[in-house]
Amino acid sequence: MFNHLLHKNSTPPDIEFGKILGSLVKSKHYHNVVSLSQKMEFEGIKLDLVNCSILINSFCQLGHIPFAFSVLAKILKNGYEPDTITFTTLIKGLCLKGDIHQALHFHDKVIAMGFHLDQVSYGTLINGLCKVGETRAALELLRRVDGKLVQLDAVMYSSIIDSMCKDKHVNDAFDLYSEMAAKRISPNVVTYSALISGFCIVGKLKDAIDLFNKMILENINPNVYTFSILVDGFCKEGRVKEAKNVLAMMMKQGIKPDVVTYSSLMDGYCLVNEVNKAESIFNTMSHRGVTANVQSYSIMINGFCKIKMVDEAMKLFKEMHHKQIFPDVITYSALIDGLCKSGRISYALELVDEMHDRGQQPDIITYNSILDALCKKHHVDKAIALLTKLKGQGIRPDMNTYTILVKGLCRSGKLEDARKVFEDLLVKGYNLDVYAYTVMIQGFCDKGLFDEALALLSKMEENGCIPDAKTYEIIILSLFEKDENDMAEKLLREMIMRGLL
């Protein structure tokens, strides 16, 4: 069609070319738009404003921003007046590349030249700021725009609400939602989904459910994303039955669950140690035509490893390779942890090498599993050598790493070395958790050093870390074993007073 138009004796109107280029953009054939536009110019056909805007959009989608701006220069040179769509497309292109500050600078330049932007332009800018974590700047832009440049809409508010929720500032997000109501701007499914997700993130599932019900009452239909958020929220609290009810409601409304919905449900079953039910969901998913992704496989591999069914996890891992689904760091880490816990350290180390070969950089979580396995096998020297190597590679140990090391040193009878590591952490201001203190206290108790154990118990509280039942039990049992009954009974009464028994 294009070639037929191009070689017509009389030059066809620009609108005919525009239809073809426009349909190519809709089907995301951006390279074709660029090459066909060049053909037109080569044949001496000057692109009109609409076709120039289509070309700008294609360059922006391909990430070729300088070329997009060269088309804008051509528009101005040819005496056309760029419209809001042209400017918005360029702003969107800069935002897609993450050049948000350049997008803001371009906005200022456009306004200074006397051009006007619309709600879509400002929605794009606000969304761009939110995507790079500049939520405060997005809110400032919203305030600057408010009624002066354009009327605010649900898209602008929803972007900021979503960003605030992801940052766990759910109360601030809810205030913005209330502000929308006060300004008679109707929240949409995106607004509600963002807020529901925010409440789930901060563990306020009841508020999330209330908001979901309010949304239904206002005749705003939840989409697959909204339902999936609720399924995930219930599952993370171990309330899998309610999650299944949400899934049933979703399907009753004719909304097909996607891979995210199914994965959340699988994760919920794994969390409550019902891995067989998670496996059933995994199989149901493929029967219903939903393709499993890397996350689905990772959840199942982790679930099998947690219940020591490492061979089943290995089968799934091989299936991934067969289906060309590439494991990520989470997949590898789950399997490596399972192998380490089942004593297959050499195979776990082979997987670490495979990760490097496949361009997947193991993180400290991956290595913690190996360090823990080495320490449990009393290979503390090998664990220390590995830790030194990791530091040399720029991989920073976390609190769990040091706790593993302290525990390993204590078990190997190297209490003084364990004490040095522990005291060094205190001096460096590490925020030690109850488990780290309990490990060191256990080390002292095993050697009968009760004064040191009790002194650390006291220091623990001074540092704002409250001992739990396990901490007390370790000291009390050790005291009873050494016939230190009075001190044991005193601690037992203290434990009761704290409601830990």
Describe the protein.
It is elongated and about 105 Å long. It has 501 residues and is mainly α. Helix content is 73%, strand content 0%. The protein has a domain of 70 residues. The protein starts with a helix and ends with a helix.
Chain-wise SSE layout:
Blueprint (H helix, E strand, L loop, with lengths): L1 H5 L7 H13 L3 H13 L6 H13 L3 H13 L6 H13 L3 H13 L6 H13 L3 H11 L8 H13 L3 H13 L6 H13 L3 H13 L6 H13 L3 H13 L6 H13 L3 H13 L6 H13 L3 H13 L6 H13 L3 H13 L6 H13 L3 H13 L6 H13 L3 H13 L6 H13 L3 H13 L6 H13 L3 H13 L4
Protein name: Pentatricopeptide (PPR) repeat protein
Keywords: Repeat
Organism: Medicago truncatula (Barrel medic)
What features would you highlight for this structure?
single chain, mainly alpha, Pentatricopeptide (PPR) repeat protein, PPR_rpt
The largest sheet is: none
From the N-terminal CA to the C-terminal CA, the straight-line distance is 82 Å
| Strand composition percent | under 5%
Which of globular, elongated, flat, extended, rod-shaped describes the shape? Answer: elongated
Which regions have little confidence, pLDDT < 50, spanning 5+ residues? none
